[in-house]
Amino acid sequence: MAANPKEYHYHPIAEDRLVLIAANREPFRTLHQNGASGLELLDMPMILREENSGTRQEMERCLRSRNIDPGKLHVIAQIDNPEAIRSSVSRGLGISVMSILAAREYLLSGQLLSFELGNQGAFRKIYLTWRKDALLSTGEQKFLEYVKERPLVTAGE
């Protein structure tokens, strides 16, 4: 959550699955066919999102929870544009971690392969956010009630 929790309400509406992505070429094809975990590929050159990105923060939290020091990754680039990351990874310049939804087009076209980040996977929450001091219209209030009644959705499944 980027905004100040003292000023905003947050309601989780979805979970977005994070995966490690790699070019659809060797050695990744063989690793993928053999059921390798993305955690097994972390010694390879990586292209990461910028430090303040939610994806980057959740990836680092996930690694720390598995006793892996994110500071020891072989980071070759930090890029704030997901399209540039997908394109760079598909050309074999490195691997990355991103949302399965963000990688979907490249995965479906066969340009990328995805690897789960361990048995439990890695997820980040997506929130509906609104200011605490906001005066909501009747329609906005009804929308919030509707959203709050719905179960959390897991994106990419």
Structure description:
With 157 residues, the protein is of the alpha/beta class. It is 31% helix and 28% strand. It is built from five helices and seven strands; from the N terminus they run E-H-E-H-E-H-E-H-E-E-H-E. The chain has helices at residues 28-33, 54-65, 82-90, 100-108, 138-149; strands at residues 8-23, 46-48, 75-78, 96-99, 112-115, 122-131, 153-155. Strands 1, 4, 5, 6 and 7 form a five-stranded mixed β-sheet that branches. Strand 2, helix 2 and strand 3 form a beta-alpha-beta unit. It is elongated.
Layout of helices and strands, plus pairs?
Layout: E1 8-23, H1 28-33, E2 46-48, H2 54-65, E3 75-78, H3 82-90, E4 96-99, H4 100-108, E5 112-115, E6 122-131, H5 138-149, E7 153-155
Parallel strand pairs: 1-7, 2-3
Antiparallel strand pairs: 1-4, 1-5, 1-6
Number of helices: 5
Order of helices and strands: EHEHEHEHEEHE
Radius of gyration: 18 Å
Helix content: 25-40%
Query: What coarse outline follows from CA principal-axis ratios?
Result: elongated
Q: What's the mean pLDDT score?
A: 92
Query: DSSP strand (E) fraction?
Result: 25-35%
Structural class: alpha/beta
> How would you characterize the largest beta sheet?
5 strands, mixed
**Termini separation (Å)?**
23 Å
Number of strands: 7
Identify low-pLDDT runs. Answer: none
In short:
The chain has five helices and seven strands.
